[in-house]
Design brief:
The protein is of the alpha/beta class. The protein has a single domain, classed as P-loop containing nucleotide triphosphate hydrolases (Rossmann fold). About 35% of the residues lie in helices and about 25% in strands. The strands form two sheets. A six-stranded mixed β-sheet has the order 6-7-8-3-9-10, sandwiched between helices. Strands 2-1-4-5 form a four-stranded antiparallel β-sheet, with helices on one face.
């Protein structure tokens, strides 16, 4: 039997004692699986993604990633190397002066040689229609351009799992179609949060619905 990449076992989380977000949530993401994570605004979709990589910690339940229980900060170091999270706000992801520096940051921290990193940066930007953007000043980019550069920083890490939080926000139709083509070629398992129905139907192979703090559709353990 194939071991899940990510597993939630009765996970609960709240930002305040009287405001639970997740309440006994159980969920699995299998190798190669591409799922849309759906739900109303405020249902906990972004919270669930942040719990996977340890940016938040559950008040109850177990998070298992790559076959190991993850609870303490040190447990999530490996998870963050193997799981790429695209934040809902691109400005939370971009902090270097130029596009090339932002995209190179992750691979360099993984210890990759600089020649290889330059190749990864060039190929990743080219795949997203951003060829020639290497020396552009990040904060001067449009919202859609920032979105694509933020995605490039994630893809350059070559993670095992992609967590994409509203990846088409700020993108025009042509850029969205290019993104669909890029994601369709990738081998990674994906969990995609998107209000763009046409987009998530194009890039995923199933959907789970987060309602009342629990996953209430296919994909639950």
């Amino acid at each position: 039997m194939t071991q899940p990449l990510i597993q939630f076992d009765q996970v609960s989380f709240s930002y305040a004692p009287d405001r639970p977000v997740l309440a006994g949530c159980s969920f699995c993401l299998e190798p190669g699986q591409r799922l849309a994570l759906l739900g109303a605004n405020g249902s906990g979709k972004t919270t669930l993604l942040h719990l996977i990589v340890g940016l938040l910690r559950p008040s109850a339940g177990r998070i298992v990633a790559f076959g190991k229980d993850r609870a303490a900060e040190a447990d999530f170091h490996e998870v963050r190397r193997r799981v790429g999270l695209l934040f809902q706000d691109a400005d939370d992801q971009l902090f270097c002066p130029t596009v090339a520096e932002d995209v190179a940051f992750g691979p360099l921290n993984l210890g990759k040689p600089r020649d290889e990193v330059r190749r990864i940066v060039s190929q990743t930007l080219e795949s997203l229609g951003l060829g020639g953007y290497e020396h552009r000043v990040t904060y001067r980019l449009s919202g859609g351009e920032k979105r694509l550069v933020a995605l490039a920083t994630v893809l350059a890490m070559q993670p095992d799992v992609l967590l994409l939080d509203e990846p088409t926000a700020g993108l025009d139709e042509a850029a969205t179609e290019r993104l669909v083509q890029v994601l369709d070629r990738l081998p990674q398992a994906m969990l995609v949060v998107s209000h763009n129905r046409a987009f998530w139907q194009a890039v995923t192979r199933g959907a789970v619905v987060l309602r009342e703090g629990r996953v209430q559709a296919s994909g639950a353990c």
